[in-house]
Amino acid sequence: MAATASVSMAGERMKLARLLLRRKTAMIGLIILVVLVLAAALAPWITSYAPQKLSIVNRLKPPSAAHWFGTDEFGRDVFTRAVYGGRLSLFVGFSVVILSSVLGIVLGLVAGFFRSADKVVARVIDAMMAFPDILLAISLVAALGPSLVNVIVALGIVYTPRLARIVRASTLVIRELPFVEAARALGVSTWRIVTAHVLRNLWSPILVQGTFIFAYAILAEAGLSFLGVGVSPEIPTWGTMINAGQQYMGSADWMMVFPGLAIVLSVVSLQMVGDGLRDILDPRLRKEL
């Protein structure tokens, strides 16, 4: 019986993989995302410059064979800093997804499964959703202090309500289904019902929402760094690079163009992947594929 279930799950995965391959936009987004991640991971091997190496003689040089993306006001190679900056920007986005997912799943399950806690948790979620994301993030970073860890914590808190609301809504439906009622009648513990019967049926919306939060977090980190309330300006991220290049707009546009293009590519690719996963994992939309 276990072998039959394993074969069934493997067949379902193969079917989902084939559907994903048929979604050209999702595949294009996935390819772009993989290229960006590989470039960030292999940064020491694809560039011969150090991200913090100064060369005043070569300051504000336009793109050339020696410096593909030009140099900045201190003569640092913009391509190198963009590649290394991608490490931190993508790391921030991924870390925010993990943190907001953990908090959002816990809050959403508590609010959706336990009626006594629903009103309190739901009101907290609604109150947090009432604030604009960037404004709430600025307030939290200002309270915690500007640092990489605090930016991750602030953005994780900001995007927790998005996931918590989805988990809560899905849990409210799942807890009333017959298989949950049957588990209760058989005396299965509440913890077992929540983890084995409810949570396992929530991974599709969690996964889809996670890709969108990833994109939002990259944009938010860039916005915080651009405003000067994010990570330290000495640390290369796409946001800090754009912030440094704004004063040279018109004379050295490449300082803003290339990190801005990296942000656009990463966000658009994540949105494309998220849309593809939503269409594939939603049974109602899957019928149309």
UniProtKB/TrEMBL annotation:
Keywords carried by this UniProt record: Cell membrane, Membrane, Transmembrane, Transmembrane helix, Transport
Tagged with keyword Endoplasmic reticulum: no
Pfam families registered for this protein in UniProt: BPD_transp_1, OppC_N
Main location per the UniProt record: membrane
Annotated ranges, domain ABC transmembrane type-1: 90-274
GO terms classed as biological process: transmembrane transport
Domain of life of the source: Bacteria
Species assigned in the record: Inquilinus limosus
A GO cellular-component term linked to this record: plasma membrane
UniProt-listed InterPro entries: BP-dependent_transpt_permease, MetI-like, MetI-like_sf, OppC_N
Family according to the record: Belongs to the binding-protein-dependent transport system permease family.
Transmembrane feature ranges: 25-46, 88-114, 134-159, 206-231, 252-273
Record protein name field: Peptide ABC transporter permease
Parts forming coiled coils: none
Subcellular location: Cell membrane
Topological category with respect to the lipid bilayer: Multi-pass membrane protein
